[in-house]
Amino acid sequence: FSFNASGQLAKALVYFPFKGLDVVRSYVVPANPNSAAQQTQRGHMTDAVDEWHTAGYTDEDRSAWNRLAGTLGAGLSGFNAMVRSFINEEVAGGIWTREADAVISAVGAAGFTVNITKVSAGLVPLIRWGVSPTFMPNNQVFVDQTGNDWESVLAGLNASTLYYFTVDVGVAGATFGRMGIYTQRTT
Q1: How far is CA 87 from CA 40, 77, 84, 117, in A?
Q2: What is the pTM of this model?
């Protein structure tokens, strides 16, 4: 015989539909271990989420993180891509370096200027660019303009071409930071 039921019975049995079938199983209280490893991972997650909220990411920065997430093939959002990068750096024993607020200016037929916000001094950020979001073979360093402003002037580019660029600093597992993938079309 068969009957339709859902819910629990005296914390002993649970009835529920599964793939079109009415099934029953014993009631199980899920384990929520408070292990040291779990607490460490929760700490990484908390740090990463705090970084997302305090980094001062602009709408353009968030769009760039979303564009990066789209290249990772894992169905991630920009938030998830940033959190993943941050946690990977902490797990590797490194220190995340904050970079944000990419501003593009002086757009011309042969190039454009990119400014970012990163603490002055310390490691020098590197801009990587190309005509594909997954292949950016060109790179150059930023110049510290003081006051946490870094600038890179991209020159010698092709006119009327859409360029993709990203910024990173340091070495993963030591001191590292990155930004999403931005776009700019030359005139």
Answers
A1: 11, 15, 5, 21
A2: 0.81
